[in-house]
């Protein structure tokens, strides 16, 4: 499935929804959407991964960089709606400790207690 990326404002967040596969060839498109969100003065990023089927190391690096950039701007970066395979990958790489992870988009927007709160803040 070709990658589809959308970004829209919901309350204080820019929700970036990823549909399909994030790999090295699609990384520039996702980077562009992240740059756009951060340039608009909205350092509160929320990635909806409910329809993401795959992410490689380039995509993971991009999420980590987005988190770091958002935090440097005084914002946040969180993930929601992870599929079991994505959740497992985040746990195996240790990145589950770097992001607040919410079970649903509604929980994230309500800023309910995350199922996996970030314990590590990236530089």
Descriptive tags:
globular; 4 helices; 123 residues; alpha/beta; single chain
Number of helices: 4
* Count of beta strands: 5
The helix fraction, in percent, is: 25-40%
Structural class call reads alpha/beta
Describe the fold and architecture.
The protein contains four helices and five strands, in the order ββαβαβαβα. Helix 1 runs parallel beside helix 2. A five-stranded mixed β-sheet has the order 1-2-3-4-5. Helices cover 36% and strands 30% of the residues. Helix 1 links the parallel strand 2 and strand 3 (44-55). The mean pLDDT is 90. The protein is of the alpha/beta class. The chain has helices at residues 27-39, 57-72, 84-93, 105-109; strands spanning 4-10, 13-22, 44-55, 76-80, 100-102. 33% of the residues are buried.
What is the fold's blueprint, element by element?
Blueprint: E1 4-10, E2 13-22, H1 27-39, E3 44-55, H2 57-72, E4 76-80, H3 84-93, E5 100-102, H4 105-109
Parallel strand pairs: 2-3, 3-4, 4-5
Antiparallel strand pairs: 1-2
Helix pairs in contact: 1-2
């Amino acid at each position: 499935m070709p990658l589809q990326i959308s970004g829209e404002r919901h309350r204080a967040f820019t929700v970036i929804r990823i549909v399909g596969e994030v790999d090295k060839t699609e990384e520039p498109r996702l980077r562009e959407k992240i740059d756009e969100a951060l340039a608009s003065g909205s350092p509160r990023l929320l990635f909806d991964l409910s329809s993401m089927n795959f992410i490689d190391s380039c995509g993971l690096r991009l999420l980590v960089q987005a988190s770091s950039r958002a935090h440097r701007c005084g914002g946040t970066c969180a993930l929601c709606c992870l599929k079991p395979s994505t959740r497992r990958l985040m746990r195996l790489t240790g990145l589950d400790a770097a992001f607040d992870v919410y079970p649903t988009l509604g929980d994230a927007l309500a800023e309910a207690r995350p199922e996996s709160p970030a314990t590590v803040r990236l530089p």
